[in-house]
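Chapter summary example.
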Amino acid sequence: MRLSFGSRRVVSLLAVSTTLVLCGAGLANASPPGHQTPDGSAAFATSARQVRAAGEFMSGNYVVLLKQAPAATYAGGVSGIPSTARNGSFDAGASDVQAYRGYLTRRQDSLARQYSVSVQQRYTVVSNGFSAHLSAAQARTLAKDPRVLTVARDRIVHAASVPKVGPHATSEFLGLTHHGHPVHGWNPKTAGKGVVVGVIDSGIWPENAAFAGQRLRHRQHVTHAHPGPIFVGHSHHTAFRKGDGHTFRGTCQPGQRFKAGTCNSKLISARYFDSGFLQTTPRNQWSPAEFKSARDGVGHGSHTSSTAAGDYGVKARLFHQAVGRITGIAPAAKIATYKALWATAADPTEASGATSDIIAAIDRAVQDGVDVINYSVGPQGGDSDIIDPVAVAFLNAAAAGVFVAAAGGNDGPTAATASNVSPWVTTAAASTWQNPDGTVVLGNGKKVLGVSHTADGTSARLVYAKNVRRKKTGSDGASAAECGLGTLSRAKAHGAIILCDRGTNLFVNKLAEVKRVHAAGVIIADVDQPDVVPLSSSLPSVSVHRAGRATILSYIRRKGPAHARLVAGNATSRRSAPVPQIADFSSVGRERSEVAITAPRLRSRAAMSSSALVPPCMPMMTSLPSMASASRLRERYFAPMLSRMTSAPPPSVDPRTTSTKSCSR
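The structure predicted for these 665 residues follows.
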């Protein structure tokens, strides 16, 4: 089967073609997905022996992929079952699709019984295989079976984690609006209408205003006159007749603090996948703020969902402070949530998940009928497997007509660190698009430019954390300089603006300490970091670079009292950092000279989970939700965006961008 997308998918094809230039990696040696043997097996030029030689087998959780094509790309060959490939469209409810999926299930069961394997999750739509816990001997033997394409260790992947703006800030940058008025036909009331965006992430916070919608009615079916979305009959299954005439069929899966009736006309489906993750991280090791449901306990999934398809002009607040309005790129699109990332007690601020669950989510999303998949996830350090089961799933999703947008990762600037580099996935770099400027105005009149979300004109005496430490506790100067927990003297620091150094102490601990001593505000200063991180805090704060730190320390060390004022915006004579710029942490492909795609995803305001223990550093959204939604808008919308989203000069580094590697401290 060819990767044929049809006229309404020309924008997606254009983006994927551009990604071919960007990546030039992944399964480039694979035969076309339609090249199959008489029994329906997909033939890959990359031999399974190459994959098996990549590493030794040991006991653990694995994903086993079989050679026969999944339903999305099956081109015939099995007696009595016609082709289920549909040249860019896929109907999971078709009788021949159901028959072929049943056939694959029987083949999988036969293989599993032969090797005494207990199947955990099975895949039949965009992947043909299953996940299972295997002994080293079982994995080794299965890998040699001629029916098996690959036996891949189930690994943990991570959310690629990310200001006063108007309701059209991002759309303005993309050229969809001008001074708040729609241009090029973009209309926030209709942009994305009839499209379903599937988000594979950490879930969603359904009560957030960005996902507000009408309650779903219970009907027997959807029609052209009544497209829905609806609850089907008296069940929690949902249906929505899309703009292309096909029907999306999802479910509102109940779970912890997530009722079956939670879905609405915006959030039309919500599922969660945790079987693989539970194999390595039992429930008692999860974050206390995590939910065994589609509810978002971290905030990452809510952020990406609202950026892609959040409602139009929603008032946003950060720690009870109004920060303007937010709008998704395709506010009329529907959202389907597939939660496969989870927060642990060891790191409650980061979401991670098992590839076996990711593949199950992709399989289900395509079966449900999504038009777009947003995947802001990847392995740390970039892709390495010759045949990556997630990449194979996305290959077949693309063949089924689903546009896949993915994050390139946050492991730059080292070469060959990019994730999701398969040529059928549109992979984005991280870049800036606006500056949340903040200024520290010193008592001697000097001004230091930094970044801030919460500077509000607060004025107070200024102290260096190291100089106001609690000496009786035995805390050393270095710990106090970083505002370590319990290191500061309340008597000395009360009511002051405290200068805290960056370092190994987490931001959440710095903030907890300055709040404990009742400080008036905080300045976070880089010591040897190349970037500056604006804090999400209820305290007035400004983050400054190394040169700014030196200026502030020189002022504090002079004779006499020191004072400072924290001001929003750029109050200096210096120019703000130009935008867009490639972030220093943005992952890099194998060749630095390759053409790159970037999207305005740093410093973007979006929805958050109300239960997140620590709000993420705001400029850390490493995903492609903007492009994910934009890909489904009509072709005339895309032209003005392309020049902006592909304007990637040789990576010039904005010294005030942030990375997930340094975002938390």
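To summarize the output: The two ends are 49 Å apart (CA to CA).
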